[in-house]
């Protein structure tokens, strides 16, 4: 997969088949579209291209919308990389770009820059300034500029019954297993390990505190989760606490993980941690002792869950 920083830096000798979208999550519905894109390209001797936008249009046009995303842009790229698509164009979505008319977008970007011979698009896709153009307009442009439009029907989309919105909602409710089914891969949180309050070791549960640099990344509901990560090429399970640590008088949200069978300094390491299931809500305990007891129960629950689901 070749990555292009915007339509203007795209160049290929070949004609392309293009699909357009933000693809947050790259969930099973997105994957179906991309599969169709890749197969169409092979059958028609075209190159496949995904035109995606960053920042998310809603981050630019409704600054107050404060939208949180399932994937950071880096995560989105990594997942798309595995789909076998030839080109990924991450076009900067700016106010200026949003003011392009439908015709300018089609003519200057799809036709002249991307050399599209085919565009695969959802039945309800709208584009151009104020989202005024729809798929019928795109078909008309296709006649004029010599490209085909392939529609992904309402039925095709509803059959999958998955949407980025539903996945975001599930994560905000802590239902990671549901989200993971829709995604077809485990939702993850990635960042660098930073210093915490230094209490974990006293608890006999040292926890790696994750700092996520992307403020637009969606953080699931506060609580305790069974997790998994690859650390230096080895697989580790653990338990993660997302919350404000009310028992020890915490004030801000932290994301902390205790890994089983690991005893190593992780400060400064970049970790991508997969969330597998939710154990419980975060609680304010009346003593450190009761918190410790709860954490021992979390550990027992996690280990049972791992045995049941990941035994070799
Ligand atoms: C599995 C697990 C569950 C936790 N559950 C809670 C909880 O329910 N309530 C709470 O106040 N803190 C909870 N904590 C957070 C501890 O208070 C925290 O690990 C401790 O304050 C150490 O903080 P430090 O890493 O900043 O030193 C949990 C931590 C872990 C690893
Ligand atoms: N099994 C483990 N799981 C998580 N972190 C561990 C583990 N073993 C050692 N560590 C190290 O201990 C650190 C956490 O210790 P802790 O006492 O909780 O301090 P702090 O909260 O100040 O970071 C982690 O950042 C990591 O470097």
Distance linking N and C termini: 33 Å
| List of distinct ligands in this structure | flavin mononucleotide, adenosine-5'-diphosphate
Series of secondary-structure elements, N-terminal to C-terminal? EEHEHHEHHEHEHHHEEEEEEH
Number of helices, counting only DSSP H or I runs of 4 residues or more? 10
Round the mean pLDDT to the nearest integer and report it.
93
CATH class bucket of the largest domain: Alpha Beta
Instruction: Indicate the multimeric state.
Output: single chain
Q: What Rg is obtained from the alpha carbons, in whole angstroms?
A: 23 Å
What is the CATH architecture term of the largest domain? 3-Layer(aba) Sandwich
In this structure, how is the largest beta sheet organized?
6 strands, parallel
Strand order of the largest sheet: 1-4-3-2-5-6
Shape: elongated
Low-confidence stretches: none
The CATH homologous superfamily name of the largest domain equals HUPs
CATH topology name of the largest domain: Rossmann fold
Helix content: 25-40%
Number of domains: 2
What portion of residues belong to β-strands?
Answer: 25-35%
Enzyme class: transferase
Keywords: ATP-binding, FAD, Flavoprotein, FMN, Kinase, Multifunctional enzyme, Nucleotide-binding, Nucleotidyltransferase, Transferase
EC number: 2.7.1.26, 2.7.7.2
Function: Catalyzes the phosphorylation of riboflavin to FMN followed by the adenylation of FMN to FAD.
